[in-house]
Design brief:
heterodimer, A: 118 residues, mainly beta, seven-stranded mixed sheet, 0% helix, B: 115 residues, four-stranded antiparallel sheet, 12 strands
Chain lengths: 118, 115
């Protein structure tokens, strides 16, 4: 297993453009999370999926943000009409959750996509 | 709401020495998990150690151990025999047990290791 994969690693865009990031989780993991990390800060939760269902969205996730996990495997995060304040590292993580066993909630992170909005 | 506080922005340790990184948290839950993650420069975040709140015994992983004080809501990380490769940003994180498993992170601490 190659771990959590994120593409692209870096994205530079102009204000007002749309961008899309992709995350491929560890293959047997049924949960997938998106976080945002700005310079000098800890990651902040954005949203998470269990299989294809989006179970929670943070208030940080404005209407310009949308995330999908259509087949319960990879996920995409789209930002429409980007703003300079969207510049950050976008991190994806995955974990395996089995209800009857409880969740150990060990999340494995990808290397992130660094977005720069000019 | 749960919060995680790391009040030391930077720390430095001599190679082969021991260093302790501090973390406090606030929650009204009784069952939860605490984590320390390491983020080397320009590299992905990796789990260092994990503690389950209902376990009184402090977790250990090789040179890494924690001091978990549930009543005080304190969760410090001790790194023994520090190595140059330990230099990184370290984040303390919290999650509830059960269905809602999002991580809440502190601001992190930058650890440098002097040769």
């Amino acid at each position: 297993d190659t771990g959590v994969s994120q593409n692209p690693r870096h994205k530079i865009t102009k204000r007002g453009q749309n961008v899309t990031f992709r995350c491929d989780p560890i293959s047997e993991h049924n949960r997938l999370y998106w976080y945002r990390q700005t310079l000098g800060q800890g990651p902040e939760f954005l949203t998470y999926f269990q299989n294809e269902a989006q179970l929670e969205k943070s208030r940080l996730l404005s209407d310009r943000f949308s995330a999908e996990r259509p087949k319960g495997s990879f996920s995409t995060l789209e930002i429409q009409r980007t703003e300079q304040g969207d510049s950050a590292m976008y991190l994806c993580a995955s974990s395996f959750h089995k209800q009857e066993q409880g969740s150990k909630n060990i999340q494995y992170f990808g290397a992130g996509t660094r977005l720069s909005v000019l | 709401a749960q919060t995680v506080t790391q009040s030391q922005p930077e720390m430095s340790v001599q190679e082969a020495e021991t260093v302790t990184l501090s973390c406090t948290y606030d929650t009204s839950e009784s069952d939860y998990y605490l984590f320390w993650y390491k983020q080397p420069p320009s590299r992905q975040m990796i789990l260092v150690i994990r503690q389950e709140a209902y376990k009184q015994q402090n977790a250990t992983e090789n040179r890494f151990s924690v001091n978990f004080q549930k009543a005080a809501k304190s969760f410090s990380l001790k790194i023994s025999d520090s190595q140059l490769g330990d230099a990184a940003m370290y984040f303390c994180a919290y999650s509830r047990a059960g269905a809602n498993s999002k991580l809440t992170f502190g601001k992190g601490i930058t650890l440098s290791v002097r040769p």
